[in-house]
Amino acid sequence: MSSLPRPDWRRAAFAWLVIVCTAGAVGYAAWAVHRSRSGGRQTAAGPVAVGDAAAGRALIARSGATLMFQNEVGGADWSQVALVPLAAPAGPRTVVPLQCLRLYFAGGRGLCMAQDPGPLSAYSAYVFGPDFKTLGRISLRGLPSRARVSPDGRYGATTVFVTGHSYAAAFSTETLLIDLTSGARLGNLEEFVVLRDGHPSKASDFNFWGVTFARDGNRFYATLGTRGQTYLVEGDVTLRQLRVLRANVECPSLSPDGTRLAFKKRVGGGFGAIIWRFHVLDLATMTETPLAESRSIDDQIEWLDDGHVLYAIAPDVWTVPADGSGEPRPFLRRALSPAVIRAATTASAPSPTAARILTLPASDVAVTLSAAPNPVRVGEDLTYVVAVRNHGPAPATDVGIDLHLSPGVTFGAFGRASPPRTPHGCSHQRGYVSCTVFRLSRDENWTLQFTVRPMERGPLQTRVTVSGAQPDPNAGNDSATVAITVVAHEGALHKD
To answer: Could you give the angle at which helices 9-24 and 29-39 cross, rounded to 10 degrees?
Structure first.
């Protein structure tokens, strides 16, 4: 039986950086790399208790839902599979020694796409069970991109880049369907018959990626790319055929109730760049709803529940309502490749696989926001000041600051950060100002100034949020809002 390799973290880090940089050429992941680099690889400051795999098995077997993901908290547990109860994502993480670039788990079986040991860049998909023992290995022909498992655990799908590692240029993918019960390859999707308007269709540039399975396991959805366009296809494993349903759909993800698909839709872009926007498609009416997340993100959505979705903005997992309402918010810091385990799964036998309970000490990180002048004229500079303080008791690492600007303003420039030598990184992308501060000691402060220009009269309200890698015992000071009045350019500035 194959065992999952544990490659040197430097090589794994480089492979993951390639994946992120690849996505960065086409949109939001450029900021993700910046943010990930600015935060650095953190070392867990809290106690780590070593146990056996019983902790991981207990989480999967519990009646409540569990989140499995790739742990991005640095140190010995970096890039390994971790689990938390879905109801307490900020709590201690159960980490098992499976190191993955992409992973998924459902129906008692998981897929871990990992780099093989050795000097060459080779990759494999490892099948593992609820006891975290590896059950089989499938060689992959390229860089891991997507992984999915059917709800019943019978089938799995992997997507890799085989030539060209960017959606922004010519590229090629290979998407395999795998029988996870036997380890047999069911075939490359390019071998399936494609039906368009009821007639077979074939082109030499057909590429497939982003599989999501229906509840019965046999039916699935995926993306077909050809001649610069993308299409939603519905597949049948038994019939080995795909039916074209709709244009401009990428990386679909089926809701738990089977009625909707969350996906990314191309909405613009120039000079080789692509801009995506998350949407939800109602399969009964074929109506689309854009989600409140306006950033261009290259990821395959995971459903948190029937009303919310999860997605990765490296190095964090975010959530947003699935009906277009609300606003995005961080769900789990220092985590990637989330998979929601909705049904309890019981391991058939004890496992010698060691597990670690990763517990980070609490840090009360607070934020305030101010702006001047107030009132401000249309077209004039408005300066925001974001102030962050760590009240302790522990140092705060990978402190993320996120601020969503109003559509009525245009971003100006970043100004002074204080203290200037505090390692940090900031970016602005499609209405979001985001920063990561590497570390704040207890009672340490950090401030940032940046400017915007209001373009229309009226009230202007802006909200900022802050969160760190550590649990925060006081959520009441994790956000702040400031209200500004914008007056006509010719109007006199005075307070009522």
So the answer is: 150
Residue 419 lies in a domain: yes
Torsion of CA 173, 252, 320, 324, to 10 degrees: 130
Contact between 149 and 156 (Cβ < 8 Å): yes
For residue 89, what are the CA distances in angstroms to 2, 211, 308, 334, 345? 32, 26, 15, 11, 19
- One domain for residues 69 and 93: yes
Q: Are residues 284 and 428 in the same domain?
A: no
Task: Tell me the per-residue pLDDT of 113-124, one tens digit each, with 9 for 90 and over.
Answer: 998 887 778 999
Instruction: Output the six-digit token pair for 265.
Output: 């839709």
pLDDT reading at 391 higher than 90: yes
Q: What is the pLDDT of residues 21-75, one digit of tens each?
A: 333 333 333 333 333 333 333 333 222 233 344 555 555 555 578 999 999 887 8
Q: 18 vs 101, 294, 435, CA distance in Å?
A: 11, 25, 22
pLDDT in tens, 138-168: 999 999 999 999 999 999 999 999 864 344 3
Task: Identify the residue with better confidence: 192 or 470.
Answer: 192
In sequence order, which residues have a C-beta less than 8 Å from that of residue 382 and are 6 or more positions away?
371, 372, 373, 376, 409, 451, 452, 453, 454, 484
Q: List the CATH number of the domain containing 150.
A: 2.120.10.30
The backbone torsions φ and ψ at residue 20, rounded to the nearest 5 degrees and listed phi first, read -65, -40
Q: Give the domain range for residue 82.
A: 9-358
Largest Cα–Cα separation, the chain: 78
Of 251, 294, 41, 58, the closest CA to residue 146 belongs to 251
Do 245 and 391 belong together in one domain?
no
- Strand-by-strand arrangement of the 458-467 sheet: 376-377, 479-487, 458-467, 396-404, 432-440, 424-429
CA angle 14, 17, 21 (to 5 degrees): 140
Q: How far apart, in whole angstroms, are the C-alpha atoms of residue 77 and residue 94? A: 10
Contact yes or no for 209/157 (Cβ under 8 A): no
Is 312 in the same domain as 405?
A: no
Q: What DSSP state is assigned to residue 141?
A: S
β-bridge partners, 459: 485
In a domain? residue 3: no
222 assigned to some structural domain: yes
Please give the Cα distance from 31 to 312 (Å, whole number): 12
